[in-house]
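Late entry, written up from scratch paper. The run itself happened at the end of the previous shift, but nothing got recorded in the book at the time, so transcribing now.
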Amino acid sequence: MAGPKVAQGLPKALTEAEIGALLEAVVGTGPIDRRDRAVLEVLYGTGLRISELVGLSLPDVDLDSGLVRAMGKGRKERVVPLGRWSHRRLVEWLAPDGRDAVAPDRWARRGDAEAVFLNARGGRLSRQGGWGLVRKYGERAGLELTPHVLRHSCATHMLDHGADVRAVQELLGHASVTTTQLYTKVTTDRLFAVYRAAHPRAGLA
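Output as recorded:
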């Protein structure tokens, strides 16, 4: 006998104002500040998973074209565009006063030399390090936050602003459009919430 089907939970997304507060939580112009600002901006701007972001190597980033090559689940590769702010923050991080200032004289592990994002010791930023970074700035902004919330927020805000669900599916690397359609439900719920709050005849009798 098949068990009962459990309803799939809706993704949690920040508001656009909360995203603004999060990005403003990074202060300073030092190398680590530049890195952290770029990590947050790229996670929100591209919808990359944290594992995809920390797995980026320098040949995966084409700043001239504004594109990033991400390796998703099942080793599936996709090309993701960089928005204006994601591009700007990456340029700042990859400048001599950014990544180069963190890079060691001698690399400890093979592959670290090509890593886009480095930790404070000059090794490739780990998934756990990325989680900790996002959580730290979430707390500064008064938000309960994980990297996946930024991915949810990217998709939800794109759909809020009229993006096609298939385009969002390609951007996020979802194998099935059904997964992406969950965000459509989120945006519909938001629409009804705003309608009920704003329209004088929308309330229940």
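DSSP finds nine helices and three strands in the chain.
(Scratch paper discarded after transcription.)
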